[in-house]
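Minutes, project check-in
Item: structure for the 343-residue chain
Input as provided by the requester:
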Amino acid sequence: MMRLPPFTYLAPRRLEEATRLLADHGPTAVAVAGGTDLYPNMKRRQIEPKVLVGLRGLRELQEVRGDAEGGLRVGAGVVLHLFSEHPTVTQFYPVLARAAAAISNPQIRHMATVGGNLLIDTRCNYYNMPYWWRRAIHFCMKKDGDVCWVAPGGRRCWAISSSDLAPVMIALQAQVRLVGARDERTVPLEALYRDDGIAYLAKRPDEIMVEVLLPPADGRRATYWKLRRRGAIDFPILGVAAAVELEPDGTCRHARLVLGAVASRPVRCDAAERVLLGQRLVPEVIEAAAEAAWKPSKPLDNADLSLGYRKAMVRVYVRRALRELAGLPAAEGPGEEARGVRE
């Protein structure tokens, strides 16, 4: 049985108290809300904080406010189950409800939070293992070792982003408000992520994600397609988030396409977006965009299923997502590979 290491749990009641505690305790302290990712990582000794600063008592992290015209403000501490069933979210931002409902299982969604999924640790087959297993291979670069077993000759960690909400919120042009002990700032969510499996967040240790700010819905169409071995529990091994705005004649005036679980951060498919702009979402254009998204996608051998299959499914899932937004059938025929799930 894997057990938690000893730690001190602090339960601040005000945001400024929480940021001060994180600053005072420095690198020995970590913030925790639902803990559905942190606690298993602690049991595996992937992270060993001496102090946990609990965020469940901070009321400013627990609210969902706004509407379709003014945009949405989502507290980072909102539980995924409540978020996926919130009437404003389901009515005006249904893609977020879909993505949240695709995370893990009902028990986890009753504990895990919006902010926790956005900040979730990067994953790798060589890292997300028990301590004794990692010790047997002399650990890895991400924790206790100096070699990345995915690419042993390299000097960086290739652990992958495993958030379901991040690709969708980037596609919707979300921003996040970060509050630290000395200041606060609002940044585009896309700027929060780095392409580094270890230092994957551009966030100071003393900063707390307070809320996510979503722009007005403005008739935007969006969808999320997720690939995983099972229809529940599993992390994504590919996520495709797509958002478009169409003119009355069907011409695409705005497009965002974001891939998850193919790199250490969510990946914007700029070339595919350019293919869509100024065009109607007809099958030929969709196929060209899927090809443009497939080319730069380079999944590695550090997640479930084979890397060749996961790369092939980028083209398939991008095609399906765009066909859904265009109002076309997702599959083009019985010969198309149908492995995976769409939530």
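Outcome recorded: Residues 333-343 have pLDDT under 50 and may be disordered.
No further action items on this chain.
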